[in-house]
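User: Hey, my collaborator sent me this sequence without any context and asked if I could get a structure. I don't really work with proteins. Can you help?
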Amino acid sequence: MKNSAFKKIIRSIHLWLGLSSGIIVFIIAVTGCFYAFQEEILNITEEYRFVEKQNAPLLLPSSLEKIARKEFPNKVLHAIKYNGSNKSAEAIFFSHDDVVESNDYYNIIYLNPYSGEVLEVADMYSGFFRWILDGHFYLWLPHEIGQTVCASATLIFMFMLITGLILWYPKNRKAAKQRFWFRWREGLKWKRKNYDLHNITGFYVMSIALIFAVTGLVWGFPWFAYGYYTLMGGDKSLVYEDPASKKEISFASVEKPLDKVFILMKKEYPKAQSIEVHPPESDSGSIAANANLDEGTYWKTDYRYFDQYTLKEKKVNHIYGKLQDATTSDKLMRMNYDIHTGAILGLPGKIFAFLISLLIASLPVTGFLIWYGRRNKKTPK
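Assistant: No problem. I've predicted the 3D structure and written it out in structure-token form, which is a compact way to encode the shape of the chain:
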């Protein structure tokens, strides 16, 4: 097959893949831009996230739990989270119904960790950034449908990047001069400028766009996540699961076990940016606790599990354990969110991710204009 015939086939594939997924890719990219600085914006606009630092000791989880349960006596308390000496503590209430999506809830009660004063009761399933996140993950559709649609569009986008590279590849050195930078002269038609915008922008964002696509597909399709993890040499489960606690008659229940676990975590992680303790949700559940060692990212978090009756530490066979026990493939999977958002490189990384997302959003627009211009080309008399 001649090169021109091959490129014609690739061009057709690129075109139809773009027309079928372009609007979805545009929405995913734009919502990703808006979500990039969510944490920074909320820290500025939501004053109740911060408290004045005091010399008094922090209230223990049992005290904060008692206050929080008065607000939601019939909801499941997922965790008590401490965010440092100058930030509010959080009592997190969360439940996910696999059958009826409308039964889901996610509430956070922000508390002064010194006095226990309730500073704010927030519904995390409402607000601007939740709306943006629903668009990014689910296209504002029911979650099961929306996740499949967004993940499928992301998978198509990966193939488009590959076909786009084939189409971009210059046939000779002379053609290469117009593939790496804009060479616009006076009087050049907008169609040519738009064509260059699509080609050159696509080439420069391709590698980062592939990283965004791969890290996004880890959440989109379980088969992709396991295939990606296995390819890197991983052999653990990717599903977060608390180990079971076994109630034995010979053991008396430990008094205020959540407090004891928090005190232990506080002692072992004196420089932790946040410490979170999870009450057992059943008589066979364990007490989960985690300490995040790096503000702004999540992958360095140490996850620990304790028998609720004996406080004996329990091991797990999934990637969410101690960081020192994680393999390279485990760490890469744990970094997935931080890589996807650019947070792995701090604020500069988020700014970079924002700009790349903006450029990715432009590709479906310039691509559509190329197709529209060719479709409505005026024939000379």
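In plain terms: The mean pLDDT is 90. You can pass these tokens on to your collaborator as they are.
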